[in-house]
Design goal:
about 20% strand, 18 helices, Rossmann fold, eight-stranded parallel beta barrel, globular, about 625 residues, binds beta-D-galactopyranose
């Protein structure tokens, strides 16, 4: 597999006379890919039907002739202002029913039929014109579906489409009433057209109603994407991809991935540390200029699966961003580290956002590879080194993980519909499990919940999987390795009610969760071995053998053979200790990695990635601060 580099470029932001110079410089520094076009609708069609594609023709030609391969984006994340005159009701409405207005981006409702047609039309025009263009080597649909909280819309269009969706799913209002338990509080419906969206209710809306709305909203995103994919495929053989975001769980990425050829994602490690990670102030201070040591890798492993093995980083932070609460600059070396970490997880390409810092617009304070004045920004030096290293290091393969973590989008929605505690959610639990595995030096695959065959793995974790699909239950029954299920896994039916018999209903495991508690910050349940449960703890009945217990003697971890159920949310040290014991039991070698150091094994090499601000020497390998080194696999 070839490792390539690229950049996001906005020719429409710069004078045409500059394009050739930019293109030549991109090639000179070793870039292969240039992504363009994804926000350019107002320049492609300044007025309805007034198509101005000539400038894009030249941009593609100049970039392509220079030797670059173009990723062409559909511009549907930024409909121009005239679109709103044409379709005044196309805006999404927020939970309070307020329009999410024009003046930034992503201002459309996925359910608006008129906008779907516009999106199909502009995609078709682009595909017809550039589908056979030899320089257009890949297509990107839209931009970061779900970014800026844009999946859920409470518009009339969404309500109407939701009612149709419900009628298809439940067939009759009676069936829906039964599935949702609407006898509770006299919430029963006679007709589908009586069912509103689950916002602005007096107190919380019924949980299955919320979950249905989330399932529906996810389907709407996938449908809009599919419209674009179909149009592009009709005219082009080039691979189609989308640039997913970090920690966006509002639509089912596995489902979308089935329609696309490559998954890509946008990696902003320092921005994410500041704006979407629950962590102590000490942790945030320590990793201020590097990002969290597990956040990027988690998404690399996730999107490798979403992309069915093919994935890229489409936007890599190269310097300070503009959008997080605080925006420090990376430590020297971090751009190289992030790039090599992605390659170590199997990325085919890493592209940087953006080529040159913009002097105007909302992202003026966002660094690029070039400064606003066109001079090199600090990241450019690191690129030279990366280029040399790519040339020197042979293909290392992706490597085979012994450990799998199951991540389920529907469970993320179920947790949001029914959090039961204020400050935690499914993603946070999944990341804490992932962190525990990584602190033990393990390489991990992230799998969808409908996985039917686990035989490639020795250890499988399925934390927080509210509903365990039958296929997975069967796969667990047949699994010969060790599995750790829970907390909260198997606690609900697919309609978010409590199953009878009560969960987790795991094959051969006599354990029933009879009560669950959520815990506020600063409180915990001590375990007898010194560990602790935080956020969440369950009471268990049954004869399953106890592996760990609370100080007061209640079961904390139980098992039947290799199937384990965890009855609480372990804190960081406890999770690591549990994972280490399980690995010992199944013959997986673990490491006790120093804070900030991570390992990733490929087919031929072991990568040591040091997120810490100090040099770390581990097992005789010395890794500089913010450094990445590799050796042959031991
Ligand atoms: C991404 C987005 C880009 C740009 C970037 C800034 O989320 O896709 O268009 O806004 O953030 O960091």
């Amino acid at each position: 597999m070839k490792r390539t580099l690229g950049v996001c470029y906005y020719p429409e932001h710069w004078p045409e006379e500059r394009w050739a110079q930019d293109a030549a410089q991109m090639v000179e520094i070793g870039l292969t890919w240039v992504r363009i076009g994804e926000f350019a609708w107002s320049r492609l069609e300044p007025a309805p039907g007034d198509l101005q594609f000539d400038w894009l023709d030249s941009a593609i030609e100049i970039l392509g002739d220079a030797g670059l391969r173009v990723v062409l984006g559909t511009p549907t994340a930024t409909p121009p202002r005239w679109m709103l005159d044409k379709h005044p009701d196309m805006l999404a409405l927020d939970e309070n029913g307020h329009p999410r207005k024009f003046g930034s981006r992503r201002h459309y409702c996925f359910s608006h039929e008129g906008y779907r047609k516009e999106s199909r039309r502009i995609t078709r025009l682009l595909a017809e014109r550039y589908g056979a263009n030899p320089h257009v080597a890949a297509w990107q649909t839209d931009n970061e579906y779900g970014c800026h909280d844009t999946v859920l819309s409470y518009s009339d269009a969404a309500r109407n489409a939701f009612q149709d969706w419900l009628a298809r799913r439940y067939q009759s209002p009676d069936a829906l009433n039964r599935a949702w338990g609407n006898v509770f509080w006299s919430m029963e419906y006679d007709r589908f057209d009586q069912i509103d969206l689950p916002n602005q209710t007096v107190t919380e809306a019924n949980h299955p109603h919320q979950l249905a709305f989330r399932r529906f909203s996810s389907d709407q995103v996938i449908a809009l994407n599919k419209i674009q994919v179909d149009e592009i495929r009709a005219h082009s053989d080039a691979p189609i991809l989308h640039n997913y975001m970090g920690r966006v769980t509002d639509f089912d990425h596995y489902a979308m991935g089935r329609d696309l050829d490559i998954a890509t994602w946008d990696s902003y490690p320092i921005g994410f540390l500041s704006d979407r990670l629950e962590a102590s102030d000490d942790h945030k201070a320590r990793f201020l200029r590097q990002g969290d040591p597990d956040m990027q890798a988690f998404h690399h492993d996730l999107y490798r699966t979403v992309g069915k093995g093919r994935w890229w980083v489409m936007e890599q932070q190269p310097g300070p961003v503009n959008w997080a609460p605080y925006n420090p600059a990376p430590l020297p070396g971090m751009v190289r580290l992030w790039t090599w970490e992605a390659f170590a997880h199997g990325a085919e390409a890493v592209c940087y956002f953006r080529w040159r810092q913009a002097p105007f617009g909302q992202e003026q304070m966002h660094a690029g590879l070039l400064r606003t004045d066109g001079e090199p920004a600090p990241a450019l030096d690191e690129l030279a080194e990366i280029k040399r290293e790519i040339e020197a290091l042979p293909d290392v393969g992706t490597g085979k993980a012994d450990v799998a973590l199951i991540l389920d989008y529907e469970s993320c929605w179920a947790w949001e519909a029914q959090p039961q505690g204020a400050d935690f959610n499914m993603f946070r639990l999944a990341l804490s499990a992932y962190r525990a595995l990584r602190q033990c030096g393990l390489s991990i695959d992230i799998l969808p919940p409908d996985t039917t065959d686990l035989s490639a793995y020795k250890l499988v974790l399925a934390p927080g999987l509210m509903t365990i699909p039958d296929a997975l239950r069967n796969a667990l029954a047949a699994f010969e390795g060790t599995a750790l299920i829970g907390p909260r896994s198997g606690s609900k039916t697919a309609e978010l009610s409590i199953p009878i018999p009560m969960g987790p209903n795991l094959p051969g495991l006599d354990a029933t969760v009879t009560l669950a508690e959520s815990l506020p910050p600063g409180t915990d349940i001590p375990l007898s071995d010194g560990g602790r449960f935080v956020h969440w703890v369950e009471r268990i009945e049954g004869e399953a053998e106890i592996v760990r217990q609370t100080e007061s003697g209640a079961p904390a971890l139980v098992h039947a053979g290799d199937l384990h159920y965890l009855a609480g949310w372990p804190d960081e040290d406890t999770f690591r200790a549990i994972v280490r014991d399980l690995c010992d039991g199944v013959g997986i070698q673990t490491h006790d990695l120093p804070d900030g150091l991570r390992i990733r094994d490929t087919e031929s090499h072991r990568f040591y990635i040091n997120y810490a601000p100090e040099q770390i020497t581990f097992n005789g390998i010395s890794v500089p601060p913010a450094g990445a080194v590799w050796t042959d696999l031991p």
